[in-house]
Design brief:
Layout (H helix, E strand, L loop, with lengths): L4 E5 L6 H14 L7 E5 L5 H7 L5 E5 L16 H6 L4 E4 L2 H6 L4 H13 L3 E6 L3 H5 L3 H12 L12 E4 L13 H18 L2 H6 L1 E5 L7 H5 L6 E4 L6 H8 L5
Parallel strand pairs: 1-2, 1-8, 2-3, 3-4, 4-5, 5-6, 6-7, 7-8
Helix pairs in contact: 1-2, 5-7, 7-8
The chain binds phosphoenolpyruvate.
The site of phosphoenolpyruvate has 14 residues, from strand 8.
Length: 252
């Protein structure tokens, strides 16, 4: 069975001291909680300090982005190898904020996926449609393009380290969550795409997280859906109490 994952994307928030305070609070409350994979993604500058606070706990560290080169003349960028060196196990790739604000394309995202896996890190690939795409009935096409583009040239073996996050752009940071049924429909479609691209085993084993205004009040219904294996959480991951409640979800 797929182990659930609750991942907190802290985005551009928290100084090193604030990040350490939150990760220490989470460490204390979730010290022995093994039923769910718990992941937190602070900003680059906090990674090593946060890594120290979560050492010997089940909480795993993620970066929010990487550059698809090991080293070299790429001013301002950070490589997957460097993230591993800083204590990361996961990297969020292709978040819609980066797709929109920084114009990241599926082929650039695919390069990041490949380099991340080569470095021994696990990518969390974000995909999702905008409101306009949904209203124009383009949602399934958009998801198919992003899945096929993002996962191009990956092997079935590599897929065992890949996590997908379905994040409808209209639900991110807006307070509007997809209904349980809308989310399940998209997740089931994505799983079907994975079966077509890889194998039935890969499709069954790959974790697909939902993201978009997940909160303590809606997590239980979402997590009860057959194809929802966890959540990628922005706003509600910044408060220890809320994030702990998400990790301790109870299927409705
Ligand atoms: C996100 O940033 O991935 C996200 C889902 O944000 P929020 O939970 O705030 O909607």
């Amino acid at each position: 069975m797929r182990k659930p994952m609750i991942a907190g994307n802290w985005k551009l928030n928290k100084t090193i001291a604030e990040a350490c305070e939150l990760s220490s609070d989470l460490s204390k409350c979730l010290a022995n909680f093994e039923e769910v994979d718990i992941v937190i993604a602070p900003v680059f500058t906090s990674l090593t300090a946060v890594a120290a606070t979560i050492k010997n706990t089940p909480i795993k560290l993620a970066a929010q982005n990487c550059y698809p080169e090991e080293s070299g003349a790429f001013t301002g960028e950070v490589s997957p190898l460097m993230l591993k060196d800083a204590g990361c196990e996961y990297v969020i790739i292709g978040h819609s904020e980066r797709r929109q604000l920084l114009e990241e394309t599926d082929s650039f995202i695919n390069q990041k996926m490949i380099k991340t896996l080569e470095a021994g890190l696990k990518p969390i690939l974000c995909i999702g449609e905008t409101l306009q795409e949904r209203e124009n009935d383009e949602m399934l096409n958009v998801l198919a393009t992003q899945i096929k583009g993002g996962l191009a040239n990956l092997s079935a073996t590599q897929m065992s380290d890949v996590v997908i996050a379905y994040e409808p752009v209209w639900a991110i940071g807006t307070g509007k969550t997809a209904t349980d049924e809308q989310a399940q429909e998209a997740h089931s479609f994505i799983r079907g795409l994975l079966q077509g691209m890889f194998t039935q085993e890969v499709a069954f084993a790959t974790r697909i997280l939902y993201g978009g205004s997940v909160k303590p009040t809606n997590v239980d219904g979402l997590m009860a859906q057959a194809d929802i294996d966890g959540a990628l959480v922005g706003g509600a991951s910044l408060k220890a109490e809320d994030f702990i409640r998400l990790v301790r979800f109870e299927k409705a």
